[in-house]
Design goal:
two-stranded antiparallel ribbon; 39% helix; alpha/beta; binds alpha-D-galactopyranose; 14 helices
């Protein structure tokens, strides 16, 4: 019995020693290891770097102490559209003054905000070709801009929208008979002269460019050059109203202040815009084209922005992106990341195109600070959000800041 137990113990020992040697040879030291067996399941599943999903922004992120205007200081200005009344909030003012060095007033400097109907009527006949204009409502914005070293881009002198209909009628009466082309040209010149001279008198040196005409090209409505026909300027003055607008603007603009034509979806009407503006450029009365750039996260930056901007530059115009916002359908993590990627790609490609001399661009303006105050609030298109009363930077801001954790390829 004893002998039998000894025998079993020996057999067990030999089996264990054999198993040990087999394990040693399979771990790669032995010459008989088969290469096909080397890849373990975990090695096969290891993701390649491009497949790693974007990780949430770690806190603190070193970018948090940097600013957009500093990051792009050698390339172009970073602008912000300031919403009426928004300058009351300290966090908003602090963020605007630290991040941006160009400012547009979203509504406060449009014709319906500056023209005074009552005073224009009361002043007749003296005011017949000189409608009353008042820029005092801009004082607090201009003071804020001045105190914070922010240059102002004026938006907008002539537009078919947000311009009172009474400006075009006899006696400044709503629904009254339209005045003649000659009278309207005098009113146009007076309006441009008054705005430009008042701005310079009251806020000297602060405005660095004017949108002289907004959205006057809308092909497909019967005009042979694609001009917007549904516009009182087009109707009352005629097809050449822009030539006069830019001529007057040049006449009264302070030396060195740039004059812009501004429009949306420029990629869809690039050649029409160039054709219409070419004579104005040849007359020396325009400097640049403002591309509004209201986008969605699925639009391609080269096709919708860099391509047309390069065409405008080649035709002799300066360019600005004047109303950038990038909408998403729903506020999901995935969509916010796609939006951040689009902001990153846009700023990156525009900077590269500027540095290579392909586009002559001197400002990118974002159309508002935070989502809930945007005109496209239901598309969450901006770089910030207001969360429980706090201004929060979205992934979109980090995208614009070229955060390495955000991909730089368009999807
Ligand atoms: C256009 C105008 C802007 C503004 C937006 C909507 O793009 O140019 O001034 O009114 O529409 O907010």
């Amino acid at each position: 019995m004893k002998r039998f137990r000894k025998l079993i113990a020996m057999v067990l020992c030999l089996t264990l020693v054999g198993a040990f040697f087999t394990a040693c040879t399979k771990s790669g030291n032995g010459s008989d290891a088969t290469p096909a067996q080397e890849a373990t399941p975990t090695e096969v599943l290891t993701p390649t770097p491009t497949e790693v999903p974007a990780t949430p922004t770690p806190t603190p992120n070193p970018l948090d102490d940097m600013t957009l205007k500093d990051l792009y200081a050698d390339d172009f200005k970073i602008g912000i559209a300031v919403q009426t009344g928004s300058l009351g909030s300290k966090p908003v003012m602090d963020e605007i003054s630290s991040q941006f060095n160009s400012m547009t007033l979203e509504n406060a400097s449009k014709p319906d905000a500056l023209l005074r109907m009552k005073e224009s009527k009361e002043g007749l006949p003296g005011t017949y070709t000189n409608p009353v204009v008042d820029v005092d409502g801009l004082a607090s914005y201009m003071k804020f801009a001045k105190e914070n070293g922010i240059a102002v881009r004026f938006h907008t002198l002539l537009w078919h929208s947000q311009t009172p209909a009474w400006l075009f009628t006899e006696d400044y009466t709503v629904g009254g008979a339209k005045v003649s082309r000659e009278v309207m040209l005098k009113r146009m010149e007076s309006y441009i002269r008054q705005v430009m001279t008042l701005m310079e008198e009251k806020y000297p040196g602060q405005v660095y460019c004017y949108d002289v005409v907004n959205e006057a090209i809308d092909p497909g409505h019967g005009d042979p050059d694609g001009l917007r026909t549904a516009s009182l300027w087009y109707e009352v003055v005629g097809r050449d109203f822009m030539n006069y607008a830019f001529e007057y603007a040049r006449k009264y603009a302070p030396e060195g202040v740039d004059l812009y034509y501004n429009d949306y979806n420029c990629y869809m009407k690039t050649s029409q815009i160039i054709n219409v503006l070419k004579p104005i450029l040849e007359a020396g009365n325009i400097d640049g084209i403002g591309m509004q750039s209201h986008m969605t996260a699925s639009q391609n930056v080269d096709r919708t922005i860099v391509g047309p901007a390069a065409e405008f530059t080649a035709a002799g115009f300066k360019v600005q992106l004047t109303e950038l916002d990038i909408g998403i359908e729903k506020e999901t993590e995935t969509n916010l990341e796609l939006q951040a990627i689009k902001y990153k790609v846009l700023f990156k490609k525009v900077r590269e195109a500027k540095q290579s001399g392909k586009i002559d661009l001197d400002c990118i303006t974002v159309w508002g600070l935070y989502d809930s105050a945007s005109w496209r609030a239901d598309e969450y298109p901006l770089m910030y959000k207001m969360k429980a009363g706090k201004l929060v930077r979205k992934r979109a801001w980090y995208g614009a800041m070229q955060d390495p954790s955000i991909k730089a390829i368009e999807i």
